[in-house]
Design a protein that fits this description.
5 helices; 5 strands
Length: 135
């Protein structure tokens, strides 16, 4: 299930190649995978998802967030968000939580007010408490 954070960003738990066409129909032009390969048994490999995304006409970035988010993760997320152009970005991880946290910190660095970020995240069912010190 895709959850809308703002007018340009969707998040979800793990996706598969069969969901890429639905994402494209929703206006997604960029997929961001925030999961490291091998996090769960049976999880699709990033390289396979990238191939499927590119075959579907979508850009793809692998920004694995492992044991907390660092400055490089935030910068890679910001770059992906800015590279989506007029399209939407779909970021995913195991549950959508890491992707939401990375989105929030990246947007905060772009000057979006904390209250707006919290409202958007809460509206999609997520709490920004783990990164509140970075907002």
């Amino acid at each position: 299930m895709f959850r809308q954070l703002d007018d340009k960003t969707l998040v979800s738990g793990q996706i598969g190649p069969d969901q890429l066409e639905e994402a494209r129909r929703l206006g997604v032009t960029m997929i961001v995978n925030n999961r490291p390969d091998g996090e769960d048994a049976g999880q699709p490999l990033s390289a396979d998802l990238e191939q499927a995304a590119r075959s579907a006409g979508l850009d793809y970035r692998h920004v694995p967030i492992v044991r907390g988010m660092g400055p490089a993760d935030v910068e890679a997320m910001r770059d992906a968000m800015h590279s989506a152009g007029d399209g939407k970005l779909l970021a995913f991880c195991r549950s959508g939580n890491r992707s939401t946290l990375a989105w929030a910190v990246a947007r905060a660095e772009d000057g979006v007010p904390r209250e707006e970020l919290e409202r958007c995240a809460e509206g999609a069912g997520f709490s920004l408490a783990p990164v509140s010190h970075l907002l």
